[in-house]
UniProtKB/TrEMBL annotation:
PANTHER family in UniProt: PECTINESTERASE INHIBITOR 5-RELATED (PTHR36710:SF18), PECTINESTERASE INHIBITOR-LIKE (PTHR36710)
SMART domains from the UniProt entry: PMEI
Signal peptide: 1-27
Residue stretches making up the Pectinesterase inhibitor domain: 41-188
Keywords, alphabetical: Disulfide bond, Signal
InterPro entries the record matches: C/VIF1 (IPR034087), Invertase/methylesterase_inhib (IPR035513), PCW_Enzyme_Inhibitor (IPR052421), Pectinesterase_inhib_dom (IPR006501)
Pfam families, per database record: PMEI (PF04043)
A GO molecular-function annotation: enzyme inhibitor activity
Lineage start: Eukaryota, Viridiplantae, Streptophyta, Embryophyta, Tracheophyta
Annotated protein name in UniProt: Pectinesterase inhibitor domain-containing protein
Sections of the chain in a coiled coil: none
Family the UniProt entry places it in: Belongs to the PMEI family.
Length: 195
C-alpha cells in the first residue's frame, strides 16, 4: 500500500511538473495576439501590432507617444485608440465640409458637399462611437461591422465629389486618411477576433 501511494505521488509530481512545460498553443496564441509582455514595453506592442496592419507607418505615427497607452496596454486598448482616432479625423472632416459649404459658390459642389455632410454626420454621431463602445465591451465583430459601415459612407462621399478621373476632390486626402485608418483598425480588430 505504501509502495502504491509512493508511485501515485511520484506520477502526480511528474505530471504536475511536465504539464507546466507542455506548450499550450491556444494560450500562447492568445498571449501573442491579445497580451504583450509588459517588460517589452509599449513601443514593442505598437510595433508588433502595426506590423500586422496594411499601413505600418500610419499605424506607428497614430499610436506613437499616445498618452493613453501604458506598459499595461493590450491590443484592445490599441484598437480603441485607433477607432477614436478615426472618429477624430471624421469629425475634423465634417467640420471642414461645413466650412467649405459656407464658402462655395458652385451649386454642384455645394450639393455634393451637402450630401457628404449627410454621410459623415451619422458616422461621427453614431457609427464610430458605437464601434468604440463595442470594443470596450469585447464585441469585436460588431466593432468591425461599424467601422466598415463608416468607410462605406466615406467612399460614398468621395464618389459624389469625383465623377470622372480628371476630377479633383476637395476631400480626397482627408477621405483617404480615414479609409486607411479604417483598414488599420480592421486589421487590429481581426487580431482580437483571433484571440
Amino acid at each position: 500500500m505504501a509502495k502504491t501511494l509512493h508511485i501515485t505521488f511520484t506520477i502526480t509530481i511528474i505530471l504536475l511538473f511536465s504539464s507546466s512545460s507542455i506548450p499550450c498553443t491556444q494560450s500562447q496564441t492568445t498571449r501573442e495576439y491579445y497580451y504583450w509582455n509588459e517588460n517589452n514595453g509599449v513601443e514593442d506592442l505598437i510595433d508588433q501590432v502595426c506590423k500586422r496592419t496594411p499601413f505600418y507607418d500610419l499605424c506607428i505615427s497614430t499610436l506613437h507617444n499616445n498618452p493613453l497607452l501604458s506598459p499595461k496596454s493590450d491590443i484592445k486598448q490599441v484598437a480603441l485608440i485607433m477607432v477614436n482616432n478615426i472618429l477624430s479625423n471624421a469629425t475634423d472632416t465634417l467640420n471642414y465640409i461645413e466650412a467649405l459649404l459656407k464658402h462655395t459658390k458652385d451649386p454642384q459642389l455645394e450639393q455634393a458637399l451637402a450630401l457628404c455632410a449627410e454621410s459623415y454626420i451619422p458616422v461621427v454621431r453614431f457609427t464610430l462611437p458605437q464601434a468604440a463602445v463595442a470594443i470596450s465591451q469585447g464585441h469585436f465583430a460588431f466593432a468591425s461591422y461599424c467601422i466598415s459601415d463608416a468607410v462605406k459612407e466615406v467612399n460614398s462621399c468621395e464618389g459624389r465629389l469625383v465623377k470622372s478621373p480628371s476630377d479633383k476632390s476637395p476631400l480626397g486626402d482627408r477621405n483617404d486618411v480615414v479609409q486607411k485608418l479604417v483598414d488599420v483598425a480592421n486589421a487590429i480588430i481581426k487580431l482580437l477576433l483571433k484571440a
